[in-house]
Design brief:
- The complex is a heterodimer.
- By secondary structure, chain A is mainly β.
- Chain A has a single domain (5-156), classed as Beta Barrel (OB fold (Dihydrolipoamide Acetyltransferase, E2P)), CATH 2.40.50.
- In chain A, 13% of the residues lie in helices and 48% in strands.
- Chain A has three helices and 13 strands.
- Chain A has helices at residues 60-63, 136-139, 144-156, and strands at 5-13, 16-21, 25-30, 44-50, 53-59, 76-82, 85-91, 93-101, 105-106, 111-112, 115-116, 120-126, 129-134.
- In chain A, the strands form three sheets. Chain A has a six-stranded mixed beta sheet with strand order 8-1-2-13-12-9. In chain A, strands 3-6-7-5-4 form a five-stranded mixed beta sheet. A two-stranded antiparallel sheet of chain A has the order 10-11.
- The longest helix of chain A is centred in the C-terminal third of the chain and has 13 residues, at 144-156.
- Chain A is globular and about 40 Å long.
- In chain B, the strands form five sheets. A six-stranded mixed beta sheet of chain B has the order 14-18-19-17-16-15.
- Chain B is globular and about 95 Å long.
- The chains are: A mainly beta, B alpha+beta.
- Chains A and B meet through strand 4, strand 5, strand 7 and helix 3 of A and helix 21, strand 11, helix 25, strand 21 and strand 22 of B.
């Protein structure tokens, strides 16, 4: 966090504007066919084929308990890399990439736009706009609390095909 | 270079690799047990064969180097020089140089002889250069005059022992007709006949050359038998195309002379005391793509067969049924055979490790006894190609972090020589590979401290983690540290890389450790990796793959045939009650929701339970490549991974065992 500036990929979900650190973004894709995965967590929309790799895709509307969005021409899948895990997130639209001074960020208030403060790393103040900087680790459940869970999961994880 | 020649080139380099391996293995064995005649012979033979092949191919530098190497090895074999550690190192480094030259010659052109002058001089220091230019001995001409001079010391021993027990040794020289075809077959027959009556101690040229027909018209063997000359003659002469048989009894009355003469027979190929084994195993090199192609064709065949099955069901022509059953059997057998053809023993990967462990333990000042078990275990070719690097990493770890320096070990009351064990074996549908050491084990406190320092866990979590979870921390990205990882095993990669690789192969890796006593890494890999035969099933618009190995049969039944037993849907199959599981609701799928009169049922077996899965439609059989669902999704009940279909869509692979236990969880016991 010593950097003075951060570059963010800005996208829309419903009425709000969100940002993820550009260093976490691998690419942005048009919506492709998503294969539903039974018994996966509810916010996991399914899996897609990303150049021969099977990548899970999550729906932030569901993750944030926001009303479901319509799929439009603008809908995109933002492929992010967090802790060596590649995941796609479905967004309503990707608007821009902006550079913000570190000083433009403020810690999140307890509740923003109805989503858990937990998922928010900071609020970016952009003249007349408010930008919600997301904490992808927490959204994916990879934060420190989840490490233990993930570890236990992995211990019990078995081979691909029995 | 003509295309024909380039074809030989490929063969040459492939075979040279094998002989290089034999050189390495043999030298390692020799280092442990310098007096082992068999090992010397193996090494000598390997060098000799490379020399011969390289000369044929016109690779001069390789020929010269192997020639010098052979000279030194011959001195060792004759007992004229001892295999000192220095000589050992020199031989190893010669082998490395040889490997380098081969690699260069393969991709580019062979470096000139001048580049290895230094090495050659060093080698000459040992062979003392007395007989540099000796050419290949032509056995035919020398035979009668020098027979008894050509016995090696140990041969003399064998022969004299044999004589004491009433056997007699002969040199049997056989000449084949100039126009003789299939010379190797004659050789095989002659060997077979002779071995019925005695033991062949040596063949000249060596058996490999004879097998490959690398000889003109004649060859000879040193043969120990109770049979007399006449008997031998008639045995051999009965083989067609044998022109002459010369038999000379071996006289060993003057043993000193024999020893003095050994150096003169230097370039004579070595003995193969059990040469006939080599005559019987035959292998063919084949491009893996051809096997893949074959596999696809077999897949198509199976699909067509399934279609025929379906046609038969609708048209009911009983005459065809029997024939179709035979076809199924043959197709199944063919499929198995092709799968097996893709299997390669782990030895292909393991055999380079002894050398690596030796070099590494020297470099690090450790003493290590390295053992390998189960190298005959077979895995799919594509896994074999990938598993090497992770194993190298784990072995390096074991030697670097596991095994303590000898003094430290003695201080702890352990033997100075540490043990590193690499073992492999089958475990159900998996292959289990273990890398174990008896070193200092993993210090859990140190791991925890490191993980906290790296911000991977909080101190509160550190208190809660179980041993297993602590070991798991080692595999987290960003855990490897300069403090724990030294130059050797460090190299910028941590265990997370090992884990990723293994998971990409559909396997898992686990670690267990006892402080002060050692560490063990266990890798589980699926037997046939990535490619499996699957039956595609449709639920509405969704497509799933069922591994064919767990599919027992496919039935199409009419809705009325579904019975209810205690509220559970079942069907009767040849008098047996088979519980039914409707796949669509179980997987929360919309399903096609058709009011089908006929329902396709896939009877599967998983974890000891048998049930019929009710699906909307059958999508035929195909070969699929298994992809992991990744770390984020981890393992989900009922799913065994995913695959990518021909049109780019992702289809999920069902794990029948998991599906059935999911059904049991939801609806109660099935049976």
């Amino acid at each position: 966090m010593e950097r003075k500036e951060r570059q963010l990929v800005v996208f829309n979900l419903g009425q709000e504007e969100y940002g993820v650190d550009i260093l976490q973004v691998q690419e942005i894709k048009r919506l492709t066919e998503i294969t539903r995965v039974p018994n996966a967590p509810a916010f996991v929309e399914g899996v897609i084929n990303l150049r021969g790799n099977v990548i899970p895709v999550i729906d932030l509307h569901k993750r944030f308990n926001l009303p479901a969005a319509e799929v439009t021409e603008e809908s995109r899948i933002v492929i992010v890399n967090v802790q060596d895990i590649t995941v796609g997130i479905i967004v309503d639209a990707v608007s821009e990439v902006i550079t913000l001074e570190e000083s433009a960020f403020a810690p999140p208030p307890p509740l923003v736009a109805g989503i858990e403060a937990n998922f928010i790393e900071a609020i970016g103040n952009l003249e007349d706009r408010l930008l919600i900087l997301l904490n992808m680790d927490r959204i994916l459940g990879l934060d420190e609390v989840a490490v233990t869970k993930e570890l236990t999961d992995k211990v019990t994880q078995e081979g691909v095909v029995k | 270079m003509t295309s024909d020649m380039s074809r030989y080139r490929e063969v040459f380099f492939a075979e040279a690799q094998e002989h290089l391996q034999a050189l390495n293995d043999g030298l390692l064995a020799l280092e442990k047990n310098p007096d082992n005649v068999d090992d010397i012979n193996v090494v000598f033979r390997a060098a000799h064969t490379i020399k011969g092949m390289a000369a044929t191919m016109g690779f001069n530098t390789i020929t010269v180097l192997t020639h010098h190497l052979e000279d030194v090895l011959d001195k060792v074999r004759a007992g004229a020089i001892k295999l000192s550690p220095e000589l050992s190192d020199l031989l190893f480094s010669s082998v490395d140089t040889l490997e380098g030259i081969l690699a260069e010659a393969q991709t580019d052109i062979e470096p000139p002889v001048e580049t290895i002058n230094g090495l050659l001089q060093e080698l000459d220091r040992y062979s003392s250069n007395e007989d540099q230019n000796k050419a290949m001995v032509t056995p035919k001409k020398e035979l009668k005059s020098t027979t008894n001079l050509e016995l090696k010391t140990y041969e003399t021993k064998v022969v004299s022992e044999a004589q004491a027990r009433g056997y007699q040794a002969y040199f049997v020289q056989v000449e084949l007709a100039p126009d003789c075809l299939m010379k190797a077959v004659r050789v095989f027959l002659i060997f077979q006949r002779l071995q019925a009556e005695g033991e062949i101690l040596r063949a000249e040229p060596p058996v490999e050359d004879l097998e490959e027909e690398k000889f003109d018209q004649s060859f000879r063997v040193l043969f120990v038998t109770k049979a007399n000359e006449e008997k031998i003659r008639s045995l051999v002469a009965k083989v067609s195309d044998v022109v002459t048989v010369d038999i000379v009894p071996v006289d060993i009355s003057n043993q000193e002379k024999v020893e003095a003469a050994t150096s003169q027979t230097a370039s004579m190929p070595a003995i193969t005391d059990h040469g006939h084994h080599q005559l019987t195993t035959q292998t063919v090199r084949i491009d893996i793509r051809r096997l893949d192609n074959l596999m696809n064709l077999v897949g198509e065949l199976v699909i067509i067969k399934t279609r025929l099955d379906q046609l038969l069901l609708t048209h009911g022509i009983s005459e065809i049924e029997e024939t179709l059953k035979s076809l199924s059997r043959v197709a199944g057998g063919l499929q198995d055979a092709v799968m097996k053809a893709r299997m390669v023993p782990l030895a292909q990967v393991f055999n380079r490790f002894p050398r690596m462990v030796r070099d590494l333990s020297r470099e690090l000042g450790r003493e290590v006894e390295f053992t390998i078990e189960g190298e005959e275990t077979e895995l799919d070719r594509s896994v074999i190609d990938e598993i090497g690097d992770p194993l190298v990493h784990l072995l390096r770890n074991a030697i670097d972090h596991g095994i303590e320096p000898p003094a430290e070990r003695q201080g702890k009351g352990k033997p100075a020589v540490g043990r590193v064990q690499l073992s492999a074996g089958y475990e159900g549908n998996h292959v289990l590979i273990m890398v174990a050491d008896d070193g200092e084990g993993i210090d859990q406190q140190r791991v925890l401290a490191r993980a906290q320092e790296k911000g991977l866990i909080t101190s509160e979590q550190a208190r809660r983690l179980t041993s297993d979870e602590i070991y798991r921390l080692l595999f987290l990205p960003g855990f490897s540290t300069s403090e724990i990882v030294s130059d050797v095993s460090g190299r910028g990669v941590g265990l997370d890389v090992v884990q990723n690789k293994i998971e990409s192969l559909g396997g898992t890796v686990e670690v267990s450790s006892i402080p002060g006593q050692g560490t063990r890494f266990s890798i589980r890999l699926p037997l046939t990796l990535a490619i499996i035969q699957a039956l595609m099933v449709e639920l509405g618009t969704e497509m799933y793959a069922l591994p064919l190995e767990s599919v027992e049969e496919i039935q199409v039944i009419e809705v009325q045939q579904i019975k209810k037993v205690r509220g559970r849907e079942v069907m009767m199959l040849r008098g047996e009650v088979v519980p039914l599981v409707r796949l669509a609701p179980l997987l929360n799928s919309q399903g096609a929701n058709l009011n089908l009169v006929e329902l396709p049922i896939v009877v599967v077996r998983g974890d000891g339970t048998r049930a019929g899965l009710v699906v909307d439609n059958l999508g035929g059989q195909r070969e699929i490549v298994i992809k992991s669902l990744g770390r984020f999704l981890g393992s989900l009940p009922g799913l065994g991974g995913a695959t990518i279909l021909g049109d780019g869509r992702v289809a999920l692979i069902l794990d029948p065992g998991g599906v059935l236990s999911l059904a049991e969880k939801r609806y109660g016991r099935l049976n």
